[in-house]
Amino acid sequence: MTALPLDSVLTSEQLHAHWKPTRDKLVREDREEELRIRIHRACAALRQAELAEADGSRAGQDAALVFRWVSLNALYGDWDYDRGMPTGDRRALDRFTSAICRADAAGRIARALGAHAAEARALVESPFLIERFWSDGEWDQVRPRRGRARRLQEDLDGQRPSAALQQVLIAVYFLRCQIIHGGATLGSGMNRVTVDPASQLLRALCGPIIAVSMEHGLDMPWGELCYPPVRSADPS
């Protein structure tokens, strides 16, 4: 693999070059197809995120956030055979954040979180990304939210990147749901208080998470791939 920088945003082009020698070897040996598919899907979605935000518009930023989440979802998603559907996002995220941070020997994820700690604190303490706020609109006026930001900082200071990453991604997931389900106007100026920090965090985190998956994915527990390619025997 080519060496990747530790302290800069990783692009889909850099990640592709990093992965290609390993991918080609796995293809020749006809193994680890599910891991290859996960990483292929993750990099394809990351590339679309880069294209979406290239015009600098607010709507492009919103689209880029969604595409980066698709990139992560390609990695963390797994199939629940008992229910006949993908495992719930929060459960799958919990397992994935633990596994990816354990595998991150170079500390890529911890470094990215530490470099964007201010954005992470702003995101996790936002009332708009807490379910209870929407069932009790006055809750943010009567109950301080600083505890979430303090807990996040304690996790970062205590070198518990898995706990910090989970807090951040759960907050971004709530925002992702608002956008995907039409609960927010694309490009709206009202959304920037959450979209701006979430976009900066996902831009910083997606590359390291994909890189760790490339470097250590052969030793990680992935679960079953959701919706694998179906190759029809009938060419028509």
Give the secondary structure arrangement, pairings included.
Elements: H1 12-28, H2 33-52, H3 58-76, E1 79-80, E2 85-86, H4 89-103, H5 108-115, H6 117-124, H7 131-135, H8 139-142, H9 146-157, H10 161-180, H11 192-216
Antiparallel strand pairs: 1-2
Helix pairs in contact: 1-2, 1-11, 2-3, 2-11, 3-10, 3-11, 4-10, 5-11, 6-9, 6-10, 6-11, 9-10, 10-11
Q: What do you see in this structure?
A:
The structure is a single chain. By secondary structure, this protein is mainly α. The chain has one domain. It has eleven helices and two strands, in the order H-H-H-E-E-H-H-H-H-H-H-H-H. It is globular and about 60 Å long.
Quick take:
The chain has 236 residues and is mainly alpha-helical. Helices cover 65% and strands 2% of the residues. Strands 1-2 form a two-stranded antiparallel ribbon.
What key attributes describe this structure?
two-stranded antiparallel ribbon; 11 helices; 236 residues; globular; mainly alpha
